[in-house]
Input
Amino acid sequence: MVSIFLKSRRQGLSRKTLKFYEGYLRHSSPVIGLNTSGQDIARFLDFLQCSNGGKHAYFRALRVFYNWLYSPKSGFKLNLQDNPILLVEAPKVEKQILPSLTNEEVSYLVGQAENLKDKAIISLFTDSGMRLSELAGIEARNIDWLNYTVTIWGKGNKQRKAVFTERTAKLLREIVDQNGTGENIWHMKAWGIVSMLKRLKQETGLPCNPHTFRRTFASNLHRAGMDIEHIMRLGGWESLDMVLRYTRSVKFEDSVKHYRALLR
Output
């Protein structure tokens, strides 16, 4: 059944997402089947030797699988009300306030980057909120120099546009003028970008990864007063909940400001 499920998902999902489902579902074989109960799944999750975050990942994979299995699309003709995952409560996950960067910290990172390419990558990450896979696949022909946008392939293999500023445009123009041909303008794979960011983190002590830059993008726009729906569209999020998750630190900072003002 897992193989049928994965085959049904191949169109419209990234390779990374497919690997996520395949890995977690293969390790969930004891509770994959037509006779599995909600109690079976809950007991399986309870006995997993991993963090609550890990258990939640198993739960998410099982939820998507069983929602598919009990839907008309699967072809198994099962009663929707009998779906066992409906009886399982999601494992609790700690909601940490994850870091974002200030404009000064971003400028510092750009200044510390050892070459033009690295500077452009950091600047574009911060300006656009792109995911790693989106940024790594940019070709010169994808860039609209007039409107400061770039066409990218986003999550779920969906095409969208991302924005950037004049600061980033200048850096990108130099890179493209030097050698804009090839598989992408960076002439490096995604793992090469990650390696560069890890080195910069070690050198500066600042959080330096695609998720931090994505949070920085959302947080900076939120601080500037931009509506959450606009942030969602610009960053390629599919729900407002995801944007709110990325801007939690800003909401706390706003609350602190009100607190200080009241106690003056």
Notes: The chain has two domains: 2-87, 103-255. The chain is about 55% helix and 5% strand. Residues 13 and 247 are 26 Å apart (CA to CA). The first strand starts at residue 143 and ends at 144.
